[in-house]
User: Which sequence fits this backbone?
């Protein structure tokens, strides 16, 4: 009987199969969403990052489980970030904290 290949213990990233993802987040106090390719859950709350459009944004704080994020109704997207997302063919995903 042939030896079976070892099973992988890592979970492949969905982007490996479907393409790179742009996460649209809304910085605290902003009425516009900005895009980043870094998964927001991997970022420290309050840290400053550079959005795809080139502007500096601050990662918002997490919303307590029993509340609705204030950013949920925000649908406006940064035009500079949107241009990069379209140019690179990224998959868009809305991310609320």
Assistant:
């Amino acid at each position: 009987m042939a030896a079976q290949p070892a099973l992988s213990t890592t979970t492949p990233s969905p982007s490996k199969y479907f393409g790179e993802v742009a996460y649209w987040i809304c910085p605290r106090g902003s009425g516009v969403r900005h895009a980043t390719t870094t998964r927001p859950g991997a970022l420290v709350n309050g840290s400053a990052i550079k959005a795809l459009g080139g502007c500096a944004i601050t990662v918002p704080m997490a919303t307590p489980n029993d509340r609705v994020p204030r950013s949920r109704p925000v649908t406006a997207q940064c035009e500079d970030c949107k241009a990069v997302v379209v140019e690179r063919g990224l998959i868009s995903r809305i991310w609320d904290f």
Remarks:
- The first strand starts at residue 21 and ends at 25.
- Confidence is low (pLDDT under 50) at residues 6-12.
